[in-house]
């Protein structure tokens, strides 16, 4: 939680330091006393000043993964790629799935980039197809 000193709060509000200190002492501006100084929470200062309180940043996590399947013929690779993409009905926003097939070595690489749940869904589909 971001906090301001009385001096910083005064600068933000465009007020004299003594005025802000009086607001704190009067209880009009919530603050916490640490040693001989007050600390004012960013949210409390925004509310006091009538400013919109910024919502906390939402965490976002993504997955980058490569699945390699060895010993797979061209027709089987076509089936796997069709089934994977078909299993993602309406492909989730931000999900990217690519297929790279090396016919000479008979291996397929599936590159998955996206959110955790969508990527997990792709991996579950691939796992089910490989186990068949």
TrEMBL record:
InterPro entries: DNA-bd_dom_put_sf, HTH_17, SinI_DNA-bd. NCBIfam families: excise. Coiled coil: none annotated. Residues 4-49 form the Helix-turn-helix domain. This is Helix-turn-helix domain-containing protein. It holds the Pfam family HTH_17. It comes from the Bacteria.
